[in-house]
Amino acid sequence: MPTAEGYPARAVAQARTLADMDARLVECRACPRLVAWREATALEKRAAFRDREYWGRPVPGFGPADATLLITGLAPAAHGANRTGRMFTGDRAGDLLFATLYELGLASRATVTGPDDGLELTGVRVTAPVHCAPPDNRPTPGERDTCRPWLTRETQLLRPTLRAVVALGAFGWQAALAALGEAGWSVPRPRPAFGHGARVPLPTADGSGAPLTVFGCYHVSQRNVFTGRLTPEMLSRVLAEAAHAAGLPVERRGG
């Protein structure tokens, strides 16, 4: 078992591929509060999932290593991805996200349940700035910063193909901009404010390689959907614009 102190930074320095990084990520124990919470939740379980074995570890990103579009949110849900082991699966927020990706022709399934359901994403990778489920779905700033090397390295490894990023929510927006700045893109100062529909082009800091565009979108949380702050149509519009910026063909299903 790797020692917790300095682990993310040491691990990402050795990761040469996304698969290698993900293998190191799932062993991370750098944040004691998150480790205790994710593991306790995996033991206690929710009544509806009493007969299921929970993942209970850090949750890696999901999607092809040559993705041109990256979607990043907040953190795994305690009884969602912390149970299934795959980002954004097992809860209502993920249901909406993947159903919309399916509608746009970017996912092979509209309904997803876990790693064995056959889901494949086309040109899209889904991740988060914090990879462990936090209490009350609220990671601390320190936990966010400790986890940042994973997102920074993930975007570095995607850099040859990455052309667009969708940040779900203000937390994801700020975390994404910080990681992209460390990964080699030039982020304006002061940092652009989050807003639904926000769109910020980022050139590379050294002038080499392709720029990318960061899109802001309200988070796909149940609260945002139930209150009407985010509608399926609003989400679909942002994801379609981001897919276009990423060079992905959008073929809406059902006409």
Automatic annotation (TrEMBL):
Instruction: Note the InterPro entries from the entry.
Output: UDG_Type-4/5, UdgB-like, Uracil-DNA_glycosylase-like, Uracil-DNA_glycosylase-like_sf
Which UniProt key words apply to this protein?
4Fe-4S, DNA damage, DNA repair, Hydrolase, Iron, Iron-sulfur, Metal-binding
Name the Pfam families on file.
Answer: UDG
Question: Where does the Uracil-DNA glycosylase-like domain start and stop, copy by copy?
Answer: 60-239
Q: Identify the SMART domains for this entry.
A: UDG (SM00986), UreE_C (SM00987)
- Segments crossing the lipid bilayer: none
SUPFAM superfamilies attached to this UniProt entry: Uracil-DNA glycosylase-like (SSF52141)
Family assignment from sequence similarity: Belongs to the uracil-DNA glycosylase (UDG) superfamily. Type 5 (UDGb) family.
Q: What's this protein's name? A: Type-5 uracil-DNA glycosylase
Organism source for this protein? Answer: Streptomyces litmocidini
Q: What is the lineage of its organism?
A: Bacteria, Bacillati, Actinomycetota, Actinomycetes, Kitasatosporales
